[in-house]
Amino acid sequence: MRDLKHLIYFENLLQIANNELITKAKKDGRICAAYTCENVPEPLLNLGNAFSIRLFAPHTGSMDIATYYMTNLLCEPSRALLERAIEGGFNFADCVIAPDGCTMMNRCVENMELLHTMEAGNEHFFHQYMEIPLKGDENGVNLCRIQCTNHILKPLHEHYGIDISEESIRRAVEDHNEICRLIRSIGEFRKEQYPRITGYEFHVLTLATYVCPKYLIKDKLEETLEELKTREPDDKPWRVRVLMAGSEVDDSGLIKLIEECGAYVCADRFCFGSFPGREPIPLTEDEDALTQVCRHYTYMCQCPRMMNMEKVYGRKQYVADLAREYRADGIIYEQVKFCDPWAYERLLGSAMLRDDYGFPVLSVDRPYNIASSVGQMRTRIQAFVESIEIKKIKRGE
Amino acid sequence: MSKTLLRFFLKLFAALFGLFAVTFVIYFFNLDMKATSLIEPIFLKHYEKIPRKQYV
Amino acid sequence: MVIKNPVEKAGEHTLGVLYSNGKVRRRREWRGIRDTLYDYTRWLYLVSILARFVVKPRNVKGMFRYRWMSNYLAVMHGMDKFTIGLRDEPLRITHTAMNFVIADVTKAIDDCFRGDRRLGNDRAFSDRCVLTDENAMTAFMMGFPNVKAILREVPTMFAANIFNQNSTTHYLDVAQEFGIPGDVCPMPEAEAGISIDDDFCVLGRCAVQVNTTCDGSLMGNGLIAKRLEREYGIPTFQLVAPMRHREEDVQEYAAEDIRKAIAFVEEHTGQKWDWTAYFESAKRVNDATRKRIEQLEINSTDYPQFFGSVFSLYNDTNYMGNCGRNADFVKIDKKLLALAEKGVKNKRMAAKEYRHRCIVWGVQPQYCIDMLYWMLQCWGVVPLTDMLSMVNTRMIAEEDTPENREQAYYDMAWLNENMIMRNRTHGGYKVLVDELWEFCEKMHADMVMMWEHMSCKALTGMHGQFEEQARAKGIHLVWVSHDLCDPRVFSRQAIRDQFSSYMRTVMREEPLDPSIEVLPDNDAW
To answer: CA-CA to A338 of 20 to 30 Å: which in A379, A396, C77, C217?
Structure first.
């Protein structure tokens, strides 16, 4: 396939956390609301003059200082973020909003606060910690509404004068939905037998929508979508198609590595992937927008920390449905090392998807930065690809 | 009568003292735990033989 | 300030002679005639408890069915761990508290076997039972006097580990064979392993699970619930305990879920919530809270009386597992306090010298190792209190009025959120770090023994902050790493060595009893 016109542009944006678009947005006088977990309702960080940036730490190498503060027993993403914060890599942020979701990410942000990593020179800077629902029910919606009011809307308004009115929320949701529709439309091409976009390219585009000011990449996403409509796919079929589920993948190199082994990543159900993170939020006039946003996040959430059994079973059903819709031959359940929620979800998910839904499953843990474990991961993926192929041969396909 | 009673109490006392002596020796020399520590491996072997429905 | 014991300790002075290379000790401790006879009578009492348990055929059957039952062969050994070196009131306090805990656990096992589909299969009894988590507050059961809360994991995993340090290793292996990584907390992992190994008793009308202490605990629940629901047809309810439990804006959420949990129990057991029973229990909860605060005040004096693992173990059982539902705890509380008051009046000391006053913090393995008594006897370091004992101090509404009935849901939610461990490991760094220094000041502690549970991310995530703040405040902070209930990662001696090394190299001190500095107990129960 011919290279996508803007792929290098998007790839370059992912090389550092403080990318050129953040600098531009800040120059435009905008307020950067940083966050660390996909359970934070993203549109609420994009009200008025504010824009959301999800903190990530590309090309992480040494994490010595963060390891001193949090030991080497915490997951690498949490240590990588703290290290980057200590290095000054997130100094663009005007506030950090962190849900008390997984313990490690919460401790990461608490250390950022205690070490005063970001607030230098900004007297309005604030940290906020949110409680997020643990169950998908109306009680959770109510909690989410209270938490968003107290820990996102009020502080943004009080510290930076951000417009938090109903109209402002509706406008932000509409902007958010436009990005979601673009990503979803691009992602639809992954269903094709000869897909005109690789999983790697799709991941680069999706990740960019989390770590860049959205309004500054929208035109290029639209252009990419148009370009894809006429892009000629390779006529060589992929050996197998896989769905990936698990912890956040901040390193597109992992997707590239999997695809180099002949496995096309046709669907992304991991933290900060497009499922369910880029699901548009439908708004009606029957209820205030804030409640509807909270309802969407509470019921749509696929985080393993959601603990009611409807959610526990529902998450596996969701993966199975996606796998069927995107015609996956197998599923990769991956987990960043030391991530407790995904450690258990990986076990239960891989067991249920294999035993109850009949999918071949690879269950694997991995480092945050795949560069430190390329050989091991490649061997695992290659073996998985071969095992699926053997199954296909046995079935006479 | 009183002699019979006295004899009874003496026997009772001797029996109780005997019981005390035996149990105290078991207690002090930790014979109870020494005995159960010998039983434990037999139980562990037995548990290995029980068929189990292991699954997630 | 060093406090020397003016009274020479009766009996054994070099405790190292008691230890052997095997599973058990050479012999029991000689404590002088009076205290040895007292200890002997308590031994007889425990023998009688076990004898009453063993005469029931279904319990013998249970011994042959469940692997975890073999750990109860070591009950007396466990008791000996907690009384090492103790005399006078501290010895009596320990026995009073611990014997009651053992009786309570024995009753729990008996109940489990009675209702177990594989053993007693008493269906009528089983239908009146609700399964709950081992680490869960049973507050939502305070108004169900006719329903039994079965804390199924207590005898299976938690209590078993008190008596035998190897009690969980088989289950950890099973869990890891099935794919749970070895880096998660071994406690929920072992519980998941028990479920995978099909080694839990199966009983109860329904089950209520709570996101108790950590992400691992929360996630393990789903795995256990799946088997309960899909294989055994026992419906489960997941009760929410918010993370940021000190915040006002989460209380409504928590209270609403308590309402739902109560409705769930009502629906499945057919029993109605009884407000009279609830408020009676609430009075007992407050009574226990007051007594615990008084115990802590006694431990703030120069002559602490109720300390060590048993202090937290008894408080855990009373605070969480009981939560005001059993009136017997009130009598025991009263007895314990009277003994402690007598002890402080008589200036009783449990070692020949008190050199340092220490707060024990972090997630602790101290039930399966006699560490806290060892610190006292070997180094003269007095463990004043521990993280797990620093729970709720707020009084709850105890009069039955319409307003208090509404308040009751918030009180139950508050207790639920403030379960042991999670009330410190969650809720932000203030409850874990800042409040530790406040307790040091209140209890006049000059040292903190920090249990660093290597799989507890909530605690290790604050490692650097503890280190820097302790240095700034001039408090001796001794890190002692361990892997909770997996002795294969850190052996008992490896744990003790970390403490001894600090005492020798930083404090430049010599042990009070050098015979126990290194002990051959790695293979012991």
So the answer is: A379
Whole-angstrom distance, CA of residue C404 vs CA of residue C398 = 8
Instruction: Report the predicted TM-score, pTM, of the whole model to 2 decimal places.
Output: 0.96
Contact C478, C502 (CB under 8 A): yes
What confidence tens digit (pLDDT) does each residue in A170-190 have? 999 999 999 999 999 999 999
Write out chain A residues lying below 8 Å of B55, CB-based: 351, 355
3 state DSSP class of C137: coil
Decide if A25 contacts A208 (C-beta within 8 A). Answer: no
Is residue A199 within 8 Å of residue A259, measured between CB atoms?
yes
pLDDT band for position C213 (cuts 50, 70, 90)? confident
Please name the residue ranges forming H helices in C304-383. Answer: 309-316, 328-345, 371-379
Whether C26 sits inside 8 A of B53 (CB atoms) is no
Q: Where are the domains of chain B?
A: 2-48
Q: What are the pLDDT digits (tens) for A352-363?
A: 999 999 999 999
Q: What is the average pLDDT value for chain A, to the nearest integer?
A: 97
How far does C174 lie from chain A, in Å, by closest CA?
13
Region class of A234: left (phi > 0), else alpha (psi between -120 and 50), else beta: beta
- Which of C180, C211, C218, C426 would best serve as a mutation to test chain A binding (most A beta carbons within 10 A)? C218
Confidence of residue A368 (pLDDT cuts 50, 70, 90): very high
Contact state of C184 with A340 under an 8 Å Cβ cutoff: yes
Count CB neighbours of C317 within 10 A.
22
Give all chains having 3 or more CB-to-CB distances under 8 Å with chain A: B, C
Q: Is the peptide bond before A41 cis (omega within 30 degrees of 0)?
A: no
In angstroms, the CA C91 to CA C374 distance is: 15
How many whole angstroms separate alpha carbon C389 and alpha carbon C408?
A: 23
C32-63 CB burial, b ≥16 within 10 A, e <16: eeebbebbbebbeebbebbeebeeeebbeebb
Nearest to A341 among C215, C458, C464 (CB): C215
Helices (H), C66-132: 75-82, 88-115, 123-126
Instruction: Among C208, C244, C430, pick the best mutation site for testing chain A contact (most A Cβ within 10 A).
Output: C244
Report whether pLDDT(C366) > 80.
Answer: no
Contacts of C196 in chain B (CB under 8 A): 54-56
Asked whether the predicted pLDDT for residue A397 surpasses 80, the reply is: no
Considering only the beta carbons, identify the residue of B34, B43, B56 that sits closest to C24: B34
Q: Tokens representing C302?
A: 């120069």
Pairing of β C353-354 and β C3-4: antiparallel
**Cβ under 8 Å to A: B residues 16-55:** 55
Asked whether this complex has an ipTM greater than 0.85, the answer is yes
Interface partners of B (3+ CB pairs, < 8 Å)?
A, C
| B38/C contact by beta carbon, under 8 A | no
Q: Which residue has the tokens 């009492």?
A: C45
Cα C184 to Cα A339: distance, rounded to the nearest angstrom = 8
Output the six-digit token pair for C120. Answer: 């007693």
- C222 close contact with B: CB closer than 8 A: no
Q: What is the pLDDT of residue C157?
A: 94
| pLDDT at residue B1 in the model | 65
pLDDT band for C136, please (50, 70, 90 cuts): confident
Closest of C282, C264, C283 to residue C273, by C-alpha: C264
Query: Mind listing the pLDDT tens digit for each residue in A85-103?
Result: 999 999 999 999 999 989 9
Question: What is the average pLDDT across A138-145?
Answer: 98
By Cβ distance, the residue of A104, A146, A343 closest to C461 is A104
Does any CB of chain A come closer than 8 Å to the CB of residue B56?
Answer: yes
* pLDDT beyond 90 at C150: yes
Q: Is A56 helix (H, G, I), strand (E, B) or coil?
A: coil
C10 touches chain B (CB under 8 A): no
Chain B within 8 Å of A364 (Cβ-Cβ)? no
